[in-house]
Every structure is written in structure tokens, then in C-alpha cells.
Give the backbone structure.
Amino acid sequence: MGLPFWLAVSPLIAAVVVLALPRRAWRAYRAVALAGDAVALALAVAAWIQFGAAANPIHTALHWFTLPGMWLGGNLSIDLTFTLDGLSLPLVTLAALLGLLAAVMVPRGQPRCKEYFFWQSLLVAAVNAVFAAGDAFTFFAAVELALFASFFLLYLFGGARRREAAFKFLIYRGLSSVFLLAALAGILYAAAGAFAPGGVQPAMPGGPTFDIARLAAQMPHLAASVCPPSVRWWLFVAIVIAVFIEEALVPLHSWLPLANEQADTPTNMLLGGVLTKTGAYILLRFGAGMLPDQVHGFGLFLAVMGVINLLYGAFAAWAQKDWRRLIAYGSISHMGLVLLGIAAFNAAGLQGAMFMMVSSGILTALLFAVTGALAERTGTFAIPRLGGLAKAMPNLSGFLLFAALGSLGLPLTSGFISEIQTFIGGFTAYPAASFVALLGVILSAVYLLYAIQRTTFGPLVQAADGWADARPREWVAIVVLTGLVLLIGVWPQLIGHPFGFTVRTLLGIGG
Amino acid sequence: MINFDMLHQHYFLTMGPLLVVTATAFVVMILEFLLRRRAQAWLTGIAMLGVAVALAVAIAHFYAQPQLTLNTMVIDAIGSVFSVLILITTLLILWFTLDYSRRHHVAGEHTYLLLFAVVGALAMATAIDLITLYVGLELLSVASYVLVAVRTRSARSVEGGLKYLLMGSIGSAVLLYGMTFIYGISGYTNLVQIGMDATSLWASYPAVVALSFVLMLAGMGVKLALVPFHMWAPDAYDGAPSPVSAFLATLAKTAAFVMLLRVMLFLFNAVASNLFSWFGVLAAVTMIVGNLIALPQRNMKRLLAFSSVAQAGYVMVPFALFGATPYTDWYALFDSIAFYLFAYTFMTVGAFAVVEIVSRERGTVDADALIGLYRRSPWLAAALSVFVLSLAGMPLTAGFVGKVYIFTTAIHARGVWLAVILFATSVVSFYYYLGWLRRVFQRPAAEGAPADAGEGAAAQAAGAAAVQVVGAAAAPDVAPAPAPARQAAIHSLIAVCALATLVLGIVPASLLHPLALQRWF
């Protein structure tokens, strides 16, 4: 039980402690949740040091149980494996950081705080485990746990239509896990040779394994006589459907704006910041990592869908009257760019897609944090009912402007470095699609600046009595996230270093 | 040379638990005549003692070499594993009865009828002759009909019993009809002998064998309450006393599953690849319909009935795979069926016990009786959460491991479509299981959050109305409000079931390992 295990489990322990604590004040529950999240973040930082320049994947495996007689008389081992490699390290750090900040952002006197901190810590543990999982079983269990925990956060806490939003969320993402599970189990058996055209052909020494590293080493190199291309196509189709729902990509996106509109600010930071990055992670891990030929084969489809998402998201964001829906559509637009980068399947494109996942995660969380703080004072997220806030709350308005500029890709922010890499990759592989996609960059400036202009400038719509500028707990989240946006923008090597290793591995098998 | 084999056969080895339970049943029956009605708890205690002895015998012979006596009774892996499960279930049900009989008037016949039903169930697990198997099934069925209808003053109980009797009798008749075809073409009732001729029978009379298979499947389908033969289940479960509902959902189903397993494998294994895919159709329909009709259900016992229909569908999945799996991997199918039934038994008995406590306290079986359970009794709420999460298949519970096992065997045997349906319907089932959890952790309307006030008040009004209606209907049958004390029996039962569900979920090797040591064939 090494470092990655505790990284995923420490918020889980916090959740159990919160549940076990007898009736206490808000402060006690928050302290426990913060402690669990802080330990996870500290372990993530320790993992960076251990990962180091040599890029050693950090691996820890815990045998759980064995299903006997599963494979020509052999057994199937069910383990809890956690591995941090170049792809998962930045993402798991993002998850741990946003988990901590979300707990910081919980307002004083949150109603039903015990339940709130329980579900939130559970969700943080689950998303940490999603990105730290080293085998397909652990990964899937973590995805399911995240679904369960976020459903309850949505269902119990949030706006008036939260129940509708929660059930829509549950149905969509539940459907996505059906396809995900079919794909994962299919890959498991396909890699072991169960679907060979002429009957079972043992291809995996020691029987089937869930281990992602071994599957990724085995799956792309199997001969057609062991794993026929038709099987690979079906598996990839299942993955693509799962990714489109999980990632809220058009045309399966409608759960995300509703969920973001109804959820409260800390939940939105987790939902928009990390949970919606699961889909792209699946596509990179199991799509590009295990079925690279199919990513090439579906490349044009993915690129076109990426451009459609980029433009649709931007246009839809322009039309929104609610900040949270605007941010949701903005994040859908970003994910279109991720899809374009993965479809390009070259060094710049893949690296750009990974950068975009992290950058979009930070910026989405930052936007939710700032707009949430504004709405706490003005009482509304509706853009037409806001105006002139720059005079009343200059600091928060300034950070809102900064987040928007980062989001539209201003140089020296993380958004810029992500977009430029993705476009370099995209133009190499799919120039026409990438050219159309450039329109999205202009549109993102339009919708964000239009909304900013209506919110912060112009005459003050409401009375400003008693509006304090940012409070300490809000300062923490906003300043940390802003600092990260700048840090990655100025020093991209920080996350480019670990991502680079994974990019080279992926290109090694599929390039 | 005279053959003395008949004299020293291993009678006690093959029939030990059966003989012990039969003896206990007669002792309890005679004592019931002699003693007055106050002695109900003593009778149940004696019955539990007898069953515990039988369980010890069964465990002692758990890894015994296969033995056959009288060409009829056998001890083998199927027999010993499922005998142990049947006896454990019996202990749980008797434990449940112990509590139930303190609060409600229980007919004196209850205990020994239950024991005779268990004798039938054990015969179904260990017999290897069609006639003996059928007699075992009828012993179990007839005793169950009476047990369901034993609350003669409750209209619902009698209605449920009557429906069960009619449907069950038709099922038995259809099953017997199917068996006669096999007897007709083979001339044997012994499973071993028919099994040796199975290939040639299929070659000579494919239509008759197929017809017999379908009829027997339909007959067993009624006993297992598989869709489309499930109509009796909700009425019977709802009308029966709670321990009997739990008995029908667990013990009766386990016995029917083991009989199905044995008969189908011995009679039809040679033609498994042709016929066993029919199990898949039945499993798929059962999973889909069972889960969908459970969605709008508000009556807790009826919901558990539909949920047990759906759960039976999950267990049917491995049955469908015997044809497509190589013999070397059949062990996984046996293990997955056995593991799921163990898991299912603990979570279902536990859920029925919690429902019994809640409905007794609130005077209604409507699901809204669960509202505020977490505030009233947190430990009970925690136990119910364990059972419900396990039924839904969430990680760290027994149900999860069972479902993972069945799911992976299905993928392995290229039954991907069954695996997908299993998972998709499990997702559907989250809706109604989480509906229970939501109520458990919901505040009662009086102190609820303002946003919930309207809905909660309406629910409470509905609940209050239901209390009055149900209370009026069941008034003669309900004992005067019992003192809250003396609940130790049922609380310890719930604790044991919750613990077993968690242990099987967290350390599945505790059961998987003994199962892996069994030589199934």
C-alpha cells in the first residue's frame, strides 16, 4: 500500500470519519474533510518529487480476491491497483487540488453540512481514484463511485430543479458506464485471446489481466488471428459512445448545462473541473493507448466532431443568459479542441489535448469560483440582471476578467499554450477541419467578453449595500487557481515533462 | 458371492442433514400437539437446535468424496454446497420466526411445516432420481402453500396463498409432464443413467427432448418466479407473514435453483449448446421486466418481491452459458451461481427483517414508512443501506462481487449481450433501491428543510391515510402495540446478515476459497 493508494483513500477515510462523527458544528466536519483532501494533495506533490526527472511510474497493487476457474481452468485476479504515470500525475494533482479548494469554498453554515462533507469527500476520493487507477477494474469502480457521489451532491444540494438535473445526470452517465464496462471487459478478454476467430487462443501469459500497463503493452500488437479487427472496431465504438456521454460532447451533452446550472459552486468546481475530464482520459487511456489503429481510422470522424463541438459550444455559450450554463458550454467547446488534438494523433496534438484537459479544468473551476462568489452577493447568476460590478467589487471583477482571458487563450496563460499546441497538431493532420476550428477561438472571445462587458461594466443594476469584496476562503481558491493558470502559461514544462513521456509512449505504439 | 453392498452404504454420509431435519420436524410436530400455544418460542428453539446439528453434519461432510446410496441419494459438490446454504437459510428464517411469533399470533403448524419444507429442499439438493426430486419439490411446495395462507383471518394472506397454490400446482404439473417424456423415451428415472444415454436420445428424438426441456424449464420457471411466470410472487410475498416471505424469496428459490442445475446438467448437458441458450432468453426477459415493473412500486414487500424476480434473472445468466463455455471453465459457472445465492440469501433475509421492523413500528408497508429511519434508529438505517446497496450491486458488498463474477463469466463465454443487459438493468434498479435510501436519510416533514416541506407533507398525509386503511384492514391480525423491548432476536439477525453481506463483499475469498476447493464434477 504505497503512496497512490493513500492518495485515493485519504479523502475516503475523511468521508467515513465525517459520517461517524456525532452531531458537531460545521467547523468540525469541514476540518475533517479539509484534512483528508490536504493529505491527498500533499501525497500528490510527493508523487511529483518521486516521479522526478527519470519518470518512474509509481505503482502500488493490493490483491483483493480471486475469481476461480475463469480462464482455461485458471483464475482471474481482482486487484486494487494504483499507478501514477505521466498522464495521470498532472490530472490526479488537479483532482486533489480542486477537491481541497472545493472544500475550502463551502460556505459557512452550509445546511445539512454532515451529509454535504460526506458526499463531497467521497466524490474527491472517487475522482482521485479515477485518475490514479492502475487497472481497469479499479478504474471502473472509481467511475461508478464518482457517479454515485455526484448524483447525491446534485440531488440533495442545489437549485430548484436539482432533482430533475440529478436524474438526468444519473441516466446519462449510467448509460455511459454500460458502454464503458462493455468496452473494458471486452478489451480484457480480447487481449487474452478469447475472441480469436477460430476459438480461444491463449495470448496472455498467466491468463487475462485487468492491469492497464500490461493491456496497453499487449493489445496494440495482437495479430488479427488472435484479435480480429472487427472486435477492435466494436470495442472502439463502445468507447466512443461512453466518452461522448461522459465528456458531454454534442449531441449527448444536454445533461451538463442543466447539472451545472442546478449545482452549487463547490460541486460545480469538481464537476466542471475534473469529473468532465474523465471522458477524455478514457479516450487517451483506452482508445489511443490500446486501440491506436482505430483512433487513426476514426480520425476524421473525431476531428469533425471536435470542430462541431468547438463551434456548437461557442455559439450556445453566446446565447446563454446564465453564467453557469455559459461556463458549461464553454467547457464543451474546450473539449471539442481536445477531441481535435487526439484525432490528430501526433506529438503536438496529443500533448495539446492533455494540456487542454488540465487548463480547461483549472479555468472552469476558476470561473465557477468567481461567478459563484459574485452570485453570493448579488443573488443571481443571470447575466441580464448583473451590471457594473467592477465598481462595487473591483477585485472579483478583475479575476473574472482574468479567467475569461485565460479561457479564450491569451498568451502567458495556460489556455494559450494548450490551444497553440492543439492547433499545431491539428493543422498537420487535418488542415481543413483545423482551419474551421480557428473560428472557435474568435467566438470564444466574443461570448466571454460579451458576458464580461455586461456583468462588470456599464451602470450598476442593483444596489451595492454591504457587498464585501472577496472573503479569505474565496481568496484562497481564486488566487491559487489564478496562480496555476499563469504558472502553466509561463512555464509549460511543469506539466509538459510528465505528459511528454506518455505522448512518446502513445506515439511509440500508434505512430 | 452375495453382494452385501446394500447393507453398508453410506446412508448417513449422503442423507445425514436430511435425516436430522426430518427427525427434528417430527419431534416438533409431536411437541406442538402436547404443549400449549405459549410454547411457540421453545418449539422454534428446538427446531433451530436440530437444524444447527444438521448444519454441523453438512459442514463435516463438506469435502466428502462423491458417494451414491440406493441409486437415489448422492453427496457431491452441488449437494454439499447447497445443503449448507439451505440449512444456513433455515436458521436465519427460524431466527426471524422467533421474533415474529412474539408479536403476532403464529399458527402452531408454522414451525414443523417449515421444517418439512426444508426436508423437501434438501431432497432437491441431494437426490439424483427424477421421482425423488419431484417428491422433494412437492414437499417444499405444499408446505409453502400452507405457510403463505396460514394467517387465515387475513384476506391478503389467503389470496396470496390461493394464487401461489394455483400457479404452483400448474408449474408442478407442467414439470412432471416434461419429466414423463424423458422417462418415456429413456425408460429410466435415474439421472445418471439418463445422462449416459443423453447423446443418443437427442440423436433419435430431438423434438421430444426439446419439448421435455421447454416444459421442465417452464415448470421450474413458475417455482423460481421467472418472468413470464412471476405473477404469483408479489401477492404471495405481500400476503405471507414476513418470515415466510423471506423463506419464499431465499430458501424456496435456492432449492429450485439447485434442482434446475442438477436436472438440466444431467439430462441435457450433451445438448447444452443447442438448448441452454433458452435460459438466456428467460434470464434477459426476467432481468428487464423484473426491474422495470419494480420501478413504480411503493409497497416495500411487493418491491422486494419484484427485486427478487430480477435477482433470479441475474442468477439465470450463468445457466445460459453452460452451452458456450468449455468444460474446463464450468467451475466458474458453478462458483458464480453458488456465490450469488449465498450473497442474495443474506441481503434478502436482512432486508425483509428491516422491513418487518419498520412496517411494524409505522403500521404500514408503504415505502414512505422509511422516511426518517436514520433519525429514529441509525444502526437499523445503516444495516438497511448495506442490504439495499448490496442488492443494487455497489462495491464492498456481497452483491457486487456476485455480480462481477456473473458478469465476467458472461463476457468470457461470449455472452456479451447478457452481460450488457445485466449491467444495464442493474443501473435501472439503482432508481428504486436509491429511492429507499433517499427516504431513509430524508428528514421527517415536520423538521424538514423548507424546500422539502410541500412534498414531505403530502407524503406524510398519504402515509397517515395508508396507516388508517391498512390498520383497519389488518386490525384483527395485529397484536396490540408491542413493547419496544425484546427486539434482541431480530436485531441480532439483522446484524448477522449485515455482517455476512459486508464480509462476503470485503473478503470474498472467505467463500470463494471453499468453493474453489470443491470438485464440481
About this structure: Chain B is about 75% helix and 0% strand. Chain B touches chain A at residues 326, 328-332, 335-336, 394-395, 401, 404-405, 407-409, 411-412, 414, 416, 419-420, 423-424, 427, 430-431, 434, 438, 441, 449, 451, 507-509, 512, 515-516 (CB under 8 Å). Chain B has a mean pLDDT of 85. The first helix of chain B runs from residue 11 to 34.
